[in-house]
Specification:
alpha+beta; Penicillin binding protein transpeptidase fold; Beta-lactamase; 5-stranded mixed β-sheet; 5-stranded antiparallel β-sheet; 29 helices; 39% helix; PCN-bd_Tpept
Length: 880
């Protein structure tokens, strides 16, 4: 090895170290340093953001914490009909709350309550992660009881208000509050402030309302119930949802045992206590409040959604649109058997009444057999719609965007969805070619699905529905429109009533609203009245209404009252075959039924069904499938009695046209179209049919070119005319020719007659086709009388003797013959009258010569009284 290539071990290691990759220890150090740097940057940035948000936090006052201000709700006439909050609140001092109550609350809501300084760092971290992963929305817990007190005092509890800024401000105010108040004071304020379902605020109030006892006497199972209700008071109310309430209560008991607040024996005893043990019946005041509870729930939701105010604590004056009389009638119809026979107590129902011109919600019915305030409000809950969605998802868009007439033809035939799933009609039959009016009135599924999936664009359907306040999600559970949305979807009764109201209001839609304005305690007015928008063309609204009037007319024996014009649509949801088999229900059983209808004043949607499929089903056998129609009539009749109920006026954008039924595309009736085949339908102006149907014949006109000539030499009349052409070349044309009093049917364009009647003849000609006859064309021709030949006398010559002899012989023979003939006549007749003389014979012969026309049988055939054989035969065929 050369000297220059020699290298010491030390130099070799140095060289290898320089060329190789960094050692693992240095890489690890770099990662740690990078992580620390990023963490410090996040902390610094987070701290800066926290400081920025905290600087804008509102001031927390004693009034905010105590919250003594009540909120008044005013009806449509400006009268107070409900007071929320302050007046229904019992305050308890710290020493009145038993340990079991505070232990239950901390166990389930904030186990480190007595250790933290007002915030839970772990919870804040979880909230920050939730903010990043949920597009700016805070999800999950983490708030301490102190933070919850701050939120109840100065912030709203809606999901829209749960932002990172709000969380930062809550934390900042919680830190301040912990420095100013003791844990005992904070817990006492919190227990006095939390909502306990309905119009009950504070645990001390709940103890009196629910159990009729002071809060100091609460037992473990009662304290656990109240602690569990803090998360979702109406959901976990023992009146509204006893099963859920027990489940939540038992969870609290379990955590209390794990935390050592109670023994296992005490826990078991509390578990075994029925959820309704010791519960009081609702008071009369609560029963009165139940009448308006569904409406009040919607009011509170709207105020919290549209403002940052808390109706329970902010001391507001809320101007609502409630019609208290209508609301009372809705409640009575749903919660008694005075108006409708519900068959059993498990059947549920929901009602939404909307004023069509304004969108104001006049009444809501959240359910039947209501027993608790702030219970389930089915009038605003999403339900499967059935066929009530068809005017919204299919027929409305088809008229709006495709300008379909109410006559537009569609074939009802065997059909499957694009994925191959077969679809059937309610009766399992097919009607062939029908109009969209017939398809909607008879609620045919297959024609509806064909229009939706084959003729409409999905963006057209989506635009139409969103303009009516119907979001595609959750209308379609898939989050996008699917083929089955032609005949079904997901909507609430309130959405249904408000969208149908646009049909009644010339296409104008107003978002349904219960609150017109809110006045704060300092006099600030917040207007919550939404704008009215043109959601569809007036022709769409009118034409859909005109079709739905036929539906209401078909069911007038139930929904009809007086002469009030109204329109409506039924809807039915269905069990799958698997569900019917599993539940053991008959084939005609259905889970729910709808009726949505409207007049020129109100739109009313009614849903009936069961909260759980296992609770029962609706059927025609017991009349339960007809319940929505009965409920509709009882309510709509009541609210319509003191208002003018006018009919809808056809706008100028719509024309009414009579067409021949069955033509596709639509055609005007022909002159011979039977009345039974004529239908009057509505068309968008400018799309009316102009072509006339030839199915029953075209308009026949008089033939042209009619001429008549008489040939005196041949005693012949000739008639000619132009060939008549029909649009339908396959149809046969015949001609009806009348000459004088004689009528002949021919197929050629000429006719000849020998020895025609004499005198001035009128000749008429008409065309027959399609089993009808057109107008006459006519002309005249003169046929002169035949001239008489003059009589000529033969010259008298004297016969010669030979001739005379010859004549004598001849006369003798004749006389002999005459004698024989006379003899025979005498024998036959027994008449002895002698034969006439030669003179008599000559006179008779002479008479015949004087009147040749009378005795000549050939001449008799030319008289007007007796037609010749050819004419007689022709007339006989014409009669046949």
């Amino acid at each position: 090895m050369s000297q220059k290539n020699k290298m010491s071990r030390k130099d070799y290691k140095k060289k290898t170290k320089k060329k190789g990759s960094p050692q693992p220890k240095k890489w690890f150090k770099r990662i740690i340093l990078t992580f620390i740097t990023v963490f410090l940057l996040v902390v610094v940035a987070g701290g800066a953001l926290f400081a920025y948000y905290a600087a804008s936090a509102p001031e927390l006052t004693e009034d905010d914490l105590v919250g003594t201000f009540s909120t008044d709700l005013l009806d449509k006439d400006g009268d107070i009909f409900y007071t929320l909050g302050g007046e229904n609140r019992e305050y308890a001092e710290a020493n009145e709350y038993p340990d079991v109550m505070t232990d239950a609350m901390t166990a389930i809501e904030d186990q480190r309550f007595y250790d933290h300084m007002g915030i839970d760092p772990i919870g804040i971290g979880r909230a920050a992660i939730g903010y990043v992963t949920n597009q700016g929305q805070i999800v999950g817990g983490g708030s301490t009881i102190t933070q919850q007190l701050v939120k109840l005092s100065v912030f709203s509890t809606t999901r829209a208000d749960q932002t990172l800024e709000r969380k930062a401000q809550e934390a900042w105010l919680a830190l301040q509050l912990e420095r100013e108040l003791s844990k005992e004071q904070i817990m006492t304020l919190y227990l006095n402030k939390i909502h306990m379902a309905g119009n009950v605020y504070g645990v001390a109030t709940a103890a009196e309302e629910y159990y009729g006892k002071p809060v100091s006497e609460l037992e473990i199972h009662e304290a656990a119930l109240f602690a569990g209700m803090a998360k979702a008071p109406n959901r976990y109310s023992p009146y509204a949802n006893p099963e859920l309430a027990k489940e939540r209560r038992d969870t609290v008991i379990s955590v209390m045992a794990e935390e050592g607040h109670i023994t296992s024996e005490e826990a078991e005893q509390a578990y075994d206590t029925p959820i309704d043990a010791g519960l009081l019946e609702l008071s009369e005041a609560d029963n009165n409040a139940l009448v308006i509870d569904s409406y009040v729930q919607r009011v509170l939701d709207e105020v919290t959604e549209k403002t940052e105010l808390s109706p329970a604590t902010a001391g507001l004056t809320i101007h609502t649109n409630i019609d208290t009389d209508a609301q009372r009638r809705v409640f009575d119809v749903l919660n008694s058997d005075e108006y409708v026979n519900y068959v059993n107590d498990e059947i549920q129902a929901a009602v939404s009444l909307v004023e069509v011109d304004t969108g104001k919600v006049r009444a809501l019915g959240g359910g039947r057999n209501t027993e608790v305030l702030r219970g389930i409000n089915r009038s605003t809950q999403i339900k499967a719609t059935g066929s009530t969605i068809k005017p919204l998802s299919t027929y409305g868009p088809a008229i709006e965007y495709l300008e379909y007439s109410t006559y537009h033809q569609i074939v009802d035939e065997e059909y499957s969805y694009p994925d191959g799933t077969p679809l059937r009609n309610y009766d399992g039959q097919y009607r062939g070619q029908i109009s969209i009016r017939e398809a909607l009135v008879d609620s045919r599924n297959i024609p509806t699905a064909k229009i939706f999936n084959e003729e409409l664009e999905m963006n057209q359907v989506e635009d139409f529905m969103t303009h009516l306040g119907i979001p595609i999600d959750p209308m379609s559970l898939e989050g996008e429109l699917v083929p089955s949305n032609a005949i079904s979807g997901q909507m609430s009764p309130l959405q249904m009533a408000s969208s149908y109201a646009a049909f009644a209001n010339g296409g104008q839609y107003t978002e349904p609203y219960t609150v017109s304005k809110v006045v704060t305690q300092d006099g600030q007015e917040i207007n919550l009245t939404p704008e009215t928008n043109q959601a569809m063309s007036d022709y769409t609204a009118y034409m859909v209404t005109d079709i739905l009037k036929d539906v209401a007319s078909n069911y007038s024996n139930i929904v009809g009252f007086g002469n009030v014009p109204q329109a409506g649509k039924t809807g039915t949801t269905n069990f799958t075959d698997e569900q019917l088999s599993e539940l053991g229900y008959p084939s005609d059983a259905v889970p729910a039924s709808w009726y949505a209808g409207y007049t020129s004043n109100y739109s009313l949607a009614v849903w009936t069904g069961y909260d759980n499929n296992r609770d029962g089903y609706l059927t025609f056998d017991d009349g339960t499938r007809l319940l929505p129609r009965h409920i509709y009539r009882e309510i709509m009749q009541y609210v319509s009695q003191d208002v003018e109920n006018s009919d809808w006026q056809m706008p100028s954008s719509v024309t009414e046209v009579t067409v021949e039924d069955g033509t596709d595309p639509a055609q005007l009736p022909g002159p011979n179209t039977p009345e039974s085949e004529r239908v009057t339908e509505l068309f968008v102006e400018g799309t009316e049919p102009t072509e006339q149907s030839l199915n029953y014949g075209e308009e026949l006109e008089a033939p042209t070119g009619l001429t008549a000539e008489y040939d005196e030499e041949n005693d012949e009349l000739t008639v000619n005319w132009d060939d008549y052409s029909l649009v339908n070349e396959e149809e046969e044309v015949t001609y009806n020719l009348t000459v004088g009093d004689e009528t002949t049917t021919v197929t050629d364009t000429s006719f000849s007659m020998t020895e025609p009647p004499t005198g001035e003849l009128t000749i008429t000609l008409s065309v027959s086709a399609y089993d009808s006859t057109g107008p006459d064309a006519s002309t005249t021709v003169t046929v002169p009388e035949p001239e008489e030949e003059p009589e000529t006398e033969e010259p008298q010559t004297e016969p010669d003797e030979a001739d005379a002899s010859e004549n004598d012989e001849t006369n003798t023979d004749n006389d002999q013959n005459n004698e024989n003939e006379d003899s025979d006549q005498e024998d036959d007749t027994g008449n002895g009258t002698p034969p006439p003389s030669d003179e008599d014979q000559d006179e008779e012969t002479s008479g015949d010569n004087e009147n040749p026309e009378e005795d000549n049988p050939n001449d008799q055939n030319n008289t007007d009284d007796t037609p010749d054989d050819s004419n007689g035969s022709t007339n006989g065929n014409d009669e046949d």
